[in-house]
Amino acid sequence: MHTARIRNFSIIAHIDHGKSTLADRLLEYTHTVPDRRMEEQVLDSMDLERERGITIKSHAIRIDYNAKDGKSYILNLIDTPGHVDFTYEVSRSLAACEGVLLLVDASQGIEAQTISNLYLALEANLTIIPVLTKIDLPASNTSLVGEELCELLDVLPDELILTSAKEGIGTEEILESIISRIPPPVADDNDKLRALIFDSMYNTYRGVIIYTRVFEGSVKAGDIIKFFTSGNRYEVDEVGYLRLDFIPAKDLQAGEVGYIIANIKRIEDAKVGDTITQAEDPATKPLPGYRDFKPMVYSGLYPTDNDDFEDLRDALSKLKLNDASLFFEPETSVALGFGFRCGFLGMLHLDIIKERLSREYGMNLIATVPNVEYRVDLKTGEEITIDNPSMLPDPVRIDAIEEPFVEAEIITDNEFIGNVMQLIMQRRGEYKTTEYIDPAKVMIYFTAPLSEIIFDFFDKLKSITKGYASLDYKFTGYKPSDLVKLDILINDDPVDALSSIIHRDKSYLWGQRLCSKLRELIPRQLFEVKIQAAIGARVVSKSKVHALRKNVTAKCYGGDITRKRKLLEQQKEGKKKMKQVGNVSLPQEAFFAILEIEKV
Amino acid sequence: MKEYPEKKELGLYIHIPFCERKCRYCSFYSIPYDERLVLEYCDSIVEEIRLHKNTIKKYKLISLYIGGGTPSVIPLNILTEFIVRIKKNINILNKSEFTIEVNPNTLTERKIKTYRELGVNRISVGVQSFNDTELKFLGRIHTASQAVDCLKRLIKSGIDNVSIDLIYGIPEQKLENWANTIREAISYNVKHISVYNLSYDKGTKLFEDLTKNKFKKVNFIKEEFMFFFMLAFFKEKGFLHYEISSLAKSEKYRSKHNLNYWQDGEYLGFGASAHSYLIDNKNCHQRWGNISNVDKYIDRIKNNESPKCFAETLNNDELLREYLMLRLRLIEGFSLREFDRIFGAEIKRKLISKLDFFIDNCLLQESGGMLSIPNNRLFVSNEIIALLLSKL
Ligand SMILES: Nc1nc2c(ncn2[C@@H]2O[C@H](COP(=O)(O)OP(=O)(O)O)[C@@H](O)[C@H]2O)c(=O)[nH]1
Ligand code: SF4
Ligand SMILES: [Mg+2]
Prior knowledge:
The structure holds 2 protein chains of 2 kinds. By secondary structure, chain A is α+β, with helices and mostly antiparallel strands. Chain A folds into 5 domains: about 5-180, Rossmann fold, CATH 3.40.50; about 195-280, Elongation Factor Tu (Ef-tu), domain 3, CATH 2.40.30; about 300-315 and about 330-370, 2-Layer Sandwich (Alpha-Beta Plaits); about 375-480, Alpha-Beta Plaits; about 485-595, Alpha-Beta Plaits, CATH 3.30.70.2570. An 8-stranded antiparallel beta sheet of chain A has the order 11-10-16-7-8-15-12-13, with no helix packed on it. In chain A, a hairpin with a 2-residue loop joins strand 27 (about 485-490) and strand 28. In chain A, helix 3 (about 85-95) runs parallel beside helix 4 (about 110-125) and helix 7 crosses helix 8 (about 345-360). Chain A starts with 5 loop residues before the first strand and ends with a helix. The mean pLDDT of chain A is about 85. By secondary structure, chain B is of the alpha/beta class. Chain B folds into 2 domains: about 10-260, TIM Barrel (Alpha-Beta Barrel); about 325-390, no CATH class. Chain B contains 15 helices and 17 strands. Chain B has helices at about 35-50, 55, 75-90, 110-120, 130-140, 145-155, 175-185, 205-210, 220-235, 255-260, 295-300, 315-325, 335-345, 345-360, 380-390; strands spanning about 10-15, 20, 30, 60-70, 95-100, 120-130, 160-170, 190-195, 240-245, 245-250, 265-270, 275-280, 285-290, 310-315, 335, 365, 370. In chain B, the strands form 4 sheets. A 9-stranded mixed beta sheet of chain B has the order 9-10-8-7-6-5-4-1-11, sandwiched between helices. In chain B, helix 1 packs across helix 11, helix 3 (about 75-90) packs parallel to helix 4 and helix 7 packs parallel to helix 9 (about 220-235). The longest helix of chain B has 17 residues, at about 35-50. In chain B, about 45% of the residues are buried. At the A-B interface, helix 13 of A face strand 8, helix 9, helix 10, strand 12 and helix 12 of B. The complex binds guanosine-5'-diphosphate (GDP), iron/sulfur cluster (SF4) and magnesium ion. Guanosine-5'-diphosphate binds near residues 19, 133, 134, 165 and 166 of chain A.
């Protein structure tokens, strides 16, 4: 019966539309966070999240709210990331909720992730409360965007809530509508325990902390629980609610959101999406699991100094503790030595992992050109998958190469349709249809190879639409393409880590551009550096970096050694960031050169 | 970190930051000559030396170097009194190297004589070039013929150990002019030559003019050629190339004062912008530098405040960096044995394990237990040192 006073909800929105800021207002209004601990985007706890102003991981927090009807309610808020790379995290959080606030920035209107998140919410059968935010902005167009939103959701204008998280307008209305519109969880304490793991984190002192939503039954300290997929059993140490800190509680009952600590040592043992039940009196069936996720982008991570290989393994394992979507396994490169092939959700994810490795673990790293995963049909009838271009077999053995394709949609102003169409074509895309959201705004559907979309497509898109475009895509399957491997030779030796798989029609041009790009990126050094691009045995382009002729301190007397040492330290640090390949030092940028070249 | 063998030797440096006029390329701390200020300044230096008297006593002084600026602008009576007062505080041995830096145009016969009487036994002349166009470009106050006169005077005076400075890589400097300058340089029986590549330091007039495109830099290929041509020439004439930019007529004419810098020796510097390096009895390696402002320097000394503007205690990494940076400037390099003794077996093993790459690629050479940069790679020595450090 108590579940009548519980609401589990999430806020979904396109990136930067104001989720975290709105969450701040809700927490402030309900005094959930003590004033002295209130800061902007209080739920974004990672340094990187704060710095970049984006949410990377989901966060959950419990809010006590005294409603106008005189009763007090428990609201469990789950803040979700908005970037397309992290769609997966959104779907995990939604499974723990009964409703969502669909937030739209009144100055930006509906954008691609608004649509894709809405899609996820509908799929999970959640109640949707449309909210227009940032109405304080002079550029906001409340009536037009409001109309669009109402049309999209088939709701009446009075169901739309207008807010400004900046000025605190509409906060109460949101809280009230959460209570009146989102249904309480349907749950029965007397049923057998079924609790969903929707997130987890690793804590050095306490082990794995599970974020869970109890659907049926209840769980308390001392219970022996069991995980459906692994079958592993654990004794529960502590259960409780999520505030900014962990607040222990007597038990967690059906409908509630909270945490469980059960002396679990490895995060792999508490798989997100798994169902928890009582070991002695188990439920018969698990809750529906999550969509499976697969890495979309692969890149090799190598320490610039081979001696740091084990350190890198440690660092990756630690990151993985809190990031189930990170994949890695050891690999060897002729050029780079020992490293790891890593799989990421997208380029932002890759970027974040790289940055955390360097900041939090002090690693000097080389990341190789990111690539997607290919399927290769061999003449023998065998099929293999390849997540590293240098592993592509000899062309004579290959029957066909298949690459991943996506369905994508772009929302933009109709004046840019021409530009966008041209870009889609250049990226081997196949146009499907266009829908008008309003007279000025269109949604363009197309399919394209993932490799053409995932790297720099969005940057390009923004530049040809003056920033007025959003993009969303999802993986649909593999299709054959006419692909070849482009190799780069440095001083006549192929550098496996610089190989890429590209479409045959583009190979010649890209080879040339890649060569000249590499010439810009590779600094002059002690030896001449010869650069060649080749497809098979055919060299398609050549260039070279002349040897450095001078780097010497003209005069070194007078006792001012400190300044000269510091100059040398800078030079040394610069070198540390480079990877020695043969007698050539290659900077990190060289490995990403292919992303930098003009693609048409 | 293992202990250094107790080094009882110490070098002293005194900075005289006064010049008749600022040269266009100069990034040293120097200001126009001002007699009232000079008097006060000399007083302050004597005071600063007095403060370190007890420390200095624990060492054997191997060198005293009065540099600048242009120490020779100081009138003889003031200088004489200055040196006499210094000598009251410290014990300069006869065989210590005692150098003073002079500008060719201010060095009279009387000055030379007085310097000798004061104990100076080495004179370093800022010749820079024997070409008037180049001297003018550099903004030097003297002419080529003044330099020649000065050197002739020095020969006559009987001062044996004369050193000159030369600069190459001056915009529009022709190869034949450089050849003339180095040929001229050895016609005056100088015992030591320091050869510098013109550098464009931020804050100098030269740098500013470069950014305004008033002239074009000499390209690296030509500079490299000038450097190696100079080396070949002087070596042919019997000079010993012992440090990247220094040559001496024989071992005994190597600059003791500068060798001390390069060989991790201890030194104390006095005066504005002077630097010091001491290893204290806890084996902590301390560096510090004085404030680069004559007025403030004088004020601080007067008020019994420290004239330091920075001080640091070197950690092992920094020591290693300095060691390689300085030792590899020496043509003989450093001994692996000594390296082992100073930095310990573990880091030595690491060095050895990375050595193949450097030796195979002719970036370093090993002979008789000494590791050094091959001659033909000296012009990229910083690149090599930085690369080596990045692997340690
Ligand atoms: N003017 C105005 N700015 C807002 C409002 N809500 C959020 N913002 C700003 O919009 C930006 C993105 O907000 P954030 O909460 O990080 O968005 P998220 O990516 O959806 O979490 C930040 O600079 C906020 O300060 C609002 O109601 N009015
Ligand atoms: S004489 Fe020497 S210290 Fe004085 S300005 Fe010229 S270069 Fe600088
Ligand atoms: Mg956010």
